[in-house]
Amino acid sequence: MPEAPTQSSSVVALRRAAHVHPARNPGVPFDLAWLDGLRVNQSAVERRTATLGTRRTVKKDAQAAWLLKAVTCIDLTTLNGDDTEGRVRRLCAKARQPVRADILAALGVPPHTITTGAVCVYHRYVAAAVDALSGSGIPVAAVSTGFPAGLIPHPLKLKEIEASVADGAREIDIVVTREHVLTGNWQALYDEVREFRAACGEAHLKAILATGDIQTLSNVARASMICMMAGADFIKTSTGKEGVNATLDVSLVMARMIREYQARTGILIGFKPAGGVSNAKTALLYQILMKEELGRAWLEPELFRFGASSLLADIERQLEHYATGRYSAFNRHPVA
Question: Which residues does UniProt call coiled coil (predicted)?
Answer without folding.
Answer: none
